[in-house]
Fold Phospho-N-acetylmuramoyl-pentapeptide-transferase.
Amino acid sequence: MLYHLIDWLENLGVHIPGMGLMHYLSFRALLAAVISMLIAFFAGRKIIAWLQRHQIGETIRNLGLEGQMQKKGTPTMGGVIIIVSLLGSVLLVCRLDNIYTILLVLTTIWCGGIGFADDYIKVFKHRKEGMSEKGKLLLQFGLGLAIALTVCISPDIPTDRLVTTIPFVKAHEFDYSWLSPFSGQLGVYTSWGIYMLMIIVVILACSNGTNLTDGMDGLSAGTSAIVGVVIGVMAWLGGDVLDARYLNIMYIPGSGEVAVFMAAFVGALIGFLWYNTFPAMVFMGDTGSLTIGGIIGVSAVLIRKELLLPILCGIFLVESLSVIIQRSWFKYTKRKYGEGRRVFLMAPLHHHYQKKGIPEPRIVTRFWIIGIILAISTLALLKIR
């Protein structure tokens, strides 16, 4: 709103000292981060107090983890703090007529709604399993399909190169035609179908990966903030024609707004960490974790860096794999030997280390360090390649 207000004033011939700063991405990104952080700081305490008054606390099952039962009754659904501070900052600083901003705001509201419904069922309906897995996946699939169609069809999402003749469909610098077993026009259509399917899988994987990682104080928020910084930097570079040409990466006009959005995203997470670090005063719940994952997945797709996510989001990937391996091996051994066996002491992976007696703050800090190493490696690949 501030950007559009200043733009409107300039068109009227009104000049206020310093108003030109709003045309610089660097200034708006810093402003977005500061505003979202401040909103999280000041609104967070009030939201936590409201959650406590209404007894919206976490229900804890005794899984034999150290310090676990001490967290019983800690307010949950704290992801509302992240969403409120993020959207508040974005509405003030970002260009609201930009397609990337619109899609990311839609993602925030959509995933936040799914997570809120899931938490609501757990807390108020007293159903620990929350929304059914099929229901959540179906809603997430709907978001992924909407994003995939928009990316492939919308004329507001330009690209560097046009290598296809499909009406209303623009090509990307990445050529996925080799994925198709067919040639000719059928092969082109098939490759685009595969590309859209990949977008949906990326969004589903990121959203659920952060959800699985959210099991310790500050773990999901801290690692997601690190990922957010890297995506913001890559969006910045890809949105600048000189930087894009120098690094030989795809130039995407207008994608600099993703950098401003991610700055607000990181600021919101840092503000939330003020209350979420050990011992946590509030948990983000699915309201926060599903939203964070959705934003990461969609933003990576929009700046065409989804292929770097296995490295950048390595922690989310390993956490998800640990759950898949644990469940698969347990079912296989139970069917074969009549008794289920486990690969890890407990899944997701962070609970495995907790079972081994490592203090929770140490596990979280080490995961953050690994996340920073993965982030640096991801940025290095832009030049090394």
